[in-house]
Structure formats: C-alpha cells, structure tokens
Amino acid sequence: MNNLIVPSSKEPGSNGNRLVVTPESAGWSHVGFEVYTLAEGQSLHKETGGNELCVVLLSGKATVATQNKTWEHIGQRMSVFEQMAPYSVYVPPGDSVRIAADTELEIAICSAPGKGTYEARLISPEDVAVEMRGTGDMERQVNNILPESAQADSLLVVEVFTPNGNWSSYPPHKHDQNNLPDETYLEESYYHRIKQEGGFAIQRVYTDDGSLNETMVVKDGDVVLVPRGYHPVSAPPGYDLYYLNTMAGPVRTWKFQDDPDHAWLKSK
C-alpha cells in the first residue's frame, strides 16, 4: 500500500469539504489542495493567510467575493466533462474569499505560499489558453488556467481531458530538481475525475533509481501526490479521464526532463 493516493470522502462534510491535502499531510512544502461540494444556497468562507489561492469552479455557478471585489453568477459548465474552460478566481495572501453556490457547485481550491505581489482577479474562460497536446493515443486537451505566463507568485494550475484509451502526461516526464535552465523542482497534485461510473485510471510515479516506483489504480475523486519522479497516466478504454494539476515550488517555472527511455515517442 502506498501513501500517494488521497481519496475523496463519499459524502461532503458540513461545510461541503470532500478532500484536503496540506503541505504537512503531503510531506512537502508548497502545494495545498481542497475540494468542496456545495448545495444551492450554501456558502464557504476561507482566509488565505500566507497563501495565494486559485479557486476553480469545476461545475456549477457561484458568486465569489474577496475583501474588495465581487463576481456575481460566474460559471457555465455543469460537468467537467463538457471540456469547456472553467471560471476561476485568483486570491492573494492576506485576503479572504467567500463562495456562494448559485447552483449545486463543485469547487477546487489550489494553494501555495504567496508574496502578495498581485491583486485578486477573475480568470474567465476567455483567459484560459486551450491546446491539444500529443498525437494519436497520446493526444489530450489541456486548459491552461494559471500557466507560467499568468500572474502568480507560486501557483501553476492546469486541467487535462484524456479520452478513453489514451495516455497523458506522456511521454513520462519529471520536475524534481532545481537545475535551471534544464529543470525545476515542482511538487504536483493530480485530482482525478472519471466520467463513466465505476471506472478507473492508472497512474505510475517512479524515479530513475527505483527508490520510488508505484503503479496505482485511481478512482473517481482520488488525488495522486507526485513529490518526485516521472508520473504518466493512462485512461483505459471506456473511461474518459479528467484531472486538475496543481504545481508549486521555489521557482515558478515549469522546466522538465523526459524519461530518456521514452523520449523518442515525441518524434512519432
């Protein structure tokens, strides 16, 4: 049994919480991640403290307010598998956020240490660059919610749609060393959703020296922690896969190294 899988609770808590990952629980220093399911009319209040947040509306509509700004009735997709880009809200440290559910709502809260460099802002679907990455059975859709080119102190946030039968985060790559310009150290979490009931995905996390070598059966609502190593994902035939990535580290740059045994696949 490994400790890289964090499952969601089957029923939300009194405040809607389904899952919490903290740097302390993950055994690392930067990435935090939470998921909430709110009923229509329910609300959630969070203080940011020393962290910056990216609140991602996974499904449903909401009114979101920070200390100085309010965005009313945002959200458009009712399921992550509609594949359209989401509405999100960036919230700096030293602020707070209140999310009021205008419909049944699922939200993710991505967090990492912040410096207060940037103000709270809405990230609308028009702000999200959508790209197709890979070819053939490695093709997937990537929605860049908070990429390196967007303003944030630490956070990088992206969501990926992998069709059933395809591989993702593939060829395998890693970002676990501070070795610029070739590689950066970034902790990463994968929040998985599977479209078809009873489905699963496969994720492997492994290092060159074999000190970490886990192959995991991932169920709907699971988070997989990637503290180091390569981390490919497979969506088995019949089961479409969504995942939301949160990354953060000492330097806010995504520089990675492909597994040299599989890098040739990029020339297919």
UniProtKB/TrEMBL annotation:
Name of the top EC class for this enzyme: isomerase
Span of the signal peptide: none
Molecular-function GO terms, alphabetical: 5-deoxy-D-glucuronate isomerase activity; glucuronate isomerase activity
Species annotation: Paenibacillus validus
Gene name as annotated: iolB
Stated name of the protein: 5-deoxy-glucuronate isomerase
GO-annotated biological processes: inositol catabolic process
A UniProt-annotated Pfam family: KduI
InterPro entries documented for this protein: Deoxy-glucuronate_isom_IolB, KduI/IolB_isomerase, RmlC-like_jellyroll, RmlC_Cupin_sf
Record's keyword terms, sorted: Isomerase
This enzyme's EC code(s): 5.3.1.30
